Amino acid sequence: MTASGSTTAAAAATTTAAAGTAATTATAAAASRAAGGADERYVVGIDFGTLSGRALVVRVSDGAELATAVHEYEHGVLDEALPSGRALPPEWALQVPSDYVNVLKTAVPEAVAAAGIRPEQVVGIGTDFTASTPMPVLADGTPLCELPEYADRPHAYVKLWKHHAAAEQAERINRVAAERGEPWLARYGGFISSEWEFAKGLQLLEEDPELYERMDHWLEAADWIIWQLSGRYVKNACTVGYKAIHQDGRYPSEEFLAALNPAFARFAVDKVEHEIGQLGDRAGGLTAQAAAWTGLPEGIAVAVGNVDAHVTAPAAQSVDPGQMVAIMGTSTCHVMNAETLASVQGMCGVVDGGILKGLYGYEAGQSGVGDIFAWYVANQVPARYTERARELGVSVHELLTDLAKDQPVGGHGLIALDWHSGNRSVLVDHRLSGLVVGATLATRAEEVYRALLEATAFGTRRIVEAFAEGGVPVTEFVAAGGLIRNSFLMQVYSDVLRMPISVIGSEQGPALGSAIHAAVAAGEYPDVRTAGQAMGRVERAKYTPDEKAADAYDALYTEYLRLHDYFGRGGNEVMHRLKRIRREALA
């Protein structure tokens, strides 16, 4: 079901539809014909992405995707100012929770209508979210930003996954944990990220203690939306394990948290700790209010929340040990199951049952991929390219890819570092920044664009090698997410990795994965693995490496590693210093 050719990376870099807020994959009439008999049952999967939310209607019996609808967030990402106009410092990225509710009110009923089914045929609903995307709320779930007195306070809002302003707090967490020999640190490859719950929570305490005291719960948006749907606050085991330092049944101790800041000692007990639900479990039934929002029957199953990457693995029928699933969009998240517990350098975590019950789920990732391509097109490409793309009826991404794809490997003479949004794995350092080396007066825009595409492939290869070094080798690489539409990019990844690339058979991997979990929560399948086998799909080894290109990329990768270690492992702190200078200049 993936498109061939060099399709736009911009569409892959966001989860929105170019046609507008409601993009359907089938007309109501066609979907009605596909719906089968009156006794067919359906589930709805909702993927809450960085810029939009997508609802997908899926048939339980075989995973057929009937229709989808997209709702773009009204406020998008708040990285420059609050809705009030108050300016935000560098490295901030916030969201407005009402945007998530509006997805329920618009995308869900639109998708069901387009599917041509009766709402009463829907038996369950499942969701996934970007992570870590935490938020402060009152005891009844009211977000602090919705209180008039806090509407102009940045820390009252949702902190999106790419909010990196808690880097100083993350650095302190890592330093103190290493000094104290905290046993859980190895479960995260030796580093806790500034993207995660504890660093962001510590930043909230230290920069706005009044709000910290006012909030009753510090929870992930993934769990907040389930609260809105089911009326029940239950945390999901995936986000708790990977983003909230919950290992072996407990959070970091009060003694450790007090060593970070005495006022932070009871953060886990007072603000975070709550009931944890397992993946695929039923969180509760759809409330009357949520039924009115969505047009779905009251009481149908609401699955425990999940993370967009991890929920995709069963949708790609790739949950066996060694099958690494890379969900490639604005960022890339790499997830994989294994039978053994190991420490992998710079991994985002290993959690027992984090993806599938009975296996250890591993996670790694890259903080910027599609975001980097979109940034380059929006800010660095000359106007003549935009004009030419318009004349040809293609996107600028397509034009740049077509211009660059036939150049021999290394023909541009460039190497780039894919750190424009910091490094998530394996360095876990969001104070790092992007770099392009080798540019001359003859360098063309399409050559830099290709170098950026290649840089993300090099970053993925470093992650794959780290897993092998840690004793959990990758045996199959499976691509999912919007970027799979770019066939040239997929071939680059195959050549750089020297591995075949399998591709998920759905363009809506996270939403399909959420639908699979909804089917399990509704009792339609006994477990997630079984449901994935029936409802998921994948095309094995769609791309295979070209030996000549792979050899040439080996030489470029060697140079990438030199730059990677020089700027990322203490050889040169210039990137850190520049970030500090910028913060001070804009303070």
Detail the topology: elements first, then pairings.
Elements: H1 9-13, H2 28-34, E1 42-48, E2 52-59, E3 65-72, E4 94-95, H3 98-115, E5 122-129, E6 134-137, E7 158-159, H4 167-180, H5 197-207, H6 209-214, E8 217-220, H7 221-230, E9 235-236, H8 237-243, H9 254-260, H10 267-272, E10 276-277, E11 282-285, H11 288-294, E12 301-303, H12 308-315, E13 323-328, E14 332-338, E15 349-352, E16 360-366, H13 370-379, H14 383-392, H15 396-404, E17 415-417, E18 435-437, H16 445-469, E19 476-480, H17 487-497, E20 501-504, H18 509-521, H19 528-535, E21 538-543, H20 547-568, H21 574-586
Parallel strand pairs: 1-5, 5-12, 9-10, 13-19, 19-20
Antiparallel strand pairs: 1-2, 2-3, 4-7, 6-8, 11-12, 13-14, 14-16, 15-16, 17-18, 20-21
Helix pairs in contact: 3-11, 4-5, 12-18, 14-15, 15-16, 16-17, 17-20, 18-19
